[in-house]
Specification:
Number of helices: 0
Helix content: under 10%
Distance between the termini: 40 Å
Order of helices and strands: EEEEEEEEEEE
Strand content: over 45%
Length: 127
Amino acid sequence: QVHLVESGGGLVQAGGSLRLSCAASGRIDSNDAMSWFRRTPGREREFLAGISWSDGSTYYVDFEKGRFTVSRDNAKNTVYLQMNNLKPDDTAIYYCAAAHPEPYTGGYYYSSNYAYWGQGTQVTVSS
């Protein structure tokens, strides 16, 4: 069982930055992967970025590549999402998720591959 807790959300002006954190408790090992998704009202939860717990390989959705950076601290069982140049369209609830075992490369994008989810953290970007 894995328990995930996100933090770092809040209100920021357009052009600003935030770093989200997701602390995992329970069993996270080299077979796992962790990712970030977000959900806006009326839309499906969408994949943003993921990272392999074994070798640190990262995966991004194309339209966010360059603004968002995912990283991990294995010792702290924590994954981060650095978000720069934020836009009002980035306003959403951001979730971290853990997958066991690690999905195949293309599988990172599908929320159905993740068994564990955090409660989410709200990010609001004002114009």
